[in-house]
Design a protein that fits this description.
- The structure is a single chain.
- The chain contains 13 helices and 10 strands.
- With 353 residues, the chain is α/β, with parallel strands linked by helices.
- It has helices at 42-53, 70-74, 108-120, 123-131, 134-141, 143-159, 178-194, 199-211, 226-242, 262-269, 275-284, 290-319, 337-350, and strands spanning 31-36, 60-64, 85-89, 100-105, 161-162, 165-166, 170-174, 216-222, 247-255, 325-329.
- The strands form 2 sheets. An 8-stranded mixed β-sheet has the order 3-4-2-7-1-8-9-10, with helices on both faces. It has a two-stranded antiparallel ribbon with strand order 5-6.
- It folds into 2 domains: 5-256 and 330-347, P-loop containing nucleotide triphosphate hydrolases (Rossmann fold, 3-Layer(aba) Sandwich); 257-323.
- The longest helix has 30 residues, at 290-319.
Length: 353
């Protein structure tokens, strides 16, 4: 489990409950779209961001669109149905309770039933279509339809009001991977261009207005490795080329501490690890055969230092795009609820929520 001491470099306080978070970089954003290359921890970051946003009584909805039930596994709860279900309590400070975190596992069938009810009052007819298998058929022959329905549900939850105010203070979408995100978010514009009039055009236009408004930000999750960083840069460039969408933050996940002084890293990366100094340290620790062990450790140190140098290069690449960046530490024992809350604290401290 990640310890409080292990979080010190990522935040500025002496205790998790007493930390002082700075103001959020995303005031006014109500729909947070989280994307990233597979294996970068996209779902974990989306969940931690949702927890961070649900502080001080705020109500947040966490959406999953890929049908993997990743949210249910993270929160150790049964598989999520197509229905908004409370799964946790958000962060709290100064004795005040956190808000409520709800989750929804989106699927095209449920979203289509919502659409038919909203525009045509035909929910029961939609259920009949489902029993006949026509929904699966429609989403198979028209893959973009699934994206329209799912982005539509996310924007509907973002806009939904009751008793004169928004139902949710924020919505976090665990979105498709980086390679598919631009088409996923732009599909409503394409549909709007095809459907000149009618409810489909109205629906597509309303979705596009939210996606392309200051209420929405598209965040990217990456690790400090060449392929995820390149996909992040490519994804940012694609969204910039589309225009009209607010680019969000870059969440650098699973960051490990160097563990070696900068001067020692530089020398080791250049192949100048001091075996004699290592051997002296091993001998002082009472380890036998310190000379042979020192030689092996020098090789390991050189490999480690070169890996650190590559990570620093990727970090500099990410800095060139000018988006806010947030770093999350690696949790080596696996993610559980305690780890999610710890990551949420880190995000709050860095201004991501």
């Amino acid at each position: 489990m990640l310890t409080v001491a292990g979080l010190e470099k990522y935040r500025g306080g002496d205790s998790l409950t007493g930390m002082s978070a700075r103001d959020s970089d995303w005031e006014g954003v109500r729909l947070h779209v989280v994307t990233g290359k597979g294996g970068t921890g996209k779902t974990t970051v989306a969940a931690a961001l949702a927890l961070a946003l649900s502080y001080h009584g705020r109500k947040v909805l966490l959406l999953e669109v890929e049908g993997r039930q990743g949210i249910a596994r993270l929160f150790d709860c049964p598989p999520l149905p197509y229905g908004e279900r409370k799964i946790g309590i958000g962060l709290g400070e100064d004795g005040r309770p956190g808000g409520d975190l709800y989750a929804l596992a989106l699927d095209p069938e449920g979203a289509l039933l919502d659409y038919l009810e909203m525009f045509y009052g035909l929910r029961h007819a939609g259920q009949a279509l489902t029993r006949l298998g026509l929904v699966d058929f429609a989403t198979t022959i028209a893959p973009g339809l699934s994206d329209v329905l799912q982005t539509g549900k996310a924007t509907e939850a973002t806009r939904r009001r009751a008793r004169g105010r928004e139902v949710y203070d924020a919505v976090v979408m665990d979105a498709p991977p980086t390679g598919r995100i631009s088409r996923f978010l732009n599909v409503s514009v394409e549909v709007s261009g095809l459907a000149k009039v009618g409810p489909i055009r109205v629906h597509a236009d309303s979705v596009a207005r939210v996606i392309r408004s200051p209420q929405t930000a598209v965040h990217f999750v990456t690790t400090l490795e060449e392929m995820p960083v390149q996909e992040t840069l490519d994804g940012l460039a694609e969204l910039r080329a589309l225009g009209g969408m607010q680019l969000g933050g870059i969440f650098i996940n699973m960051v490990r501490p160097h563990g070696v002084a900068e001067a020692g890293l530089g020398a080791a990366a250049a192949g100048r690890a001091d075996e004699a100094e290592i051997a002296l340290g091993l001998k002082a620790a009472g380890l036998p055969d310190s000379q042979a062990l020192a030689a092996d450790l020098a090789i390991e140190l050189t490999d480690h230092a070169r890996g650190v140098a590559l990570q620093e290069r990727e970090r500099r690449e990410l800095a060139t795009v000018g988006q806010p960046r947030y770093e999350l530490p690696a949790i080596t024992d696996g993610i559980d609820l305690g780890g999610l809350y710890a990551l949420a604290e880190v995000l709050r401290a860095q201004g991501a929520a």
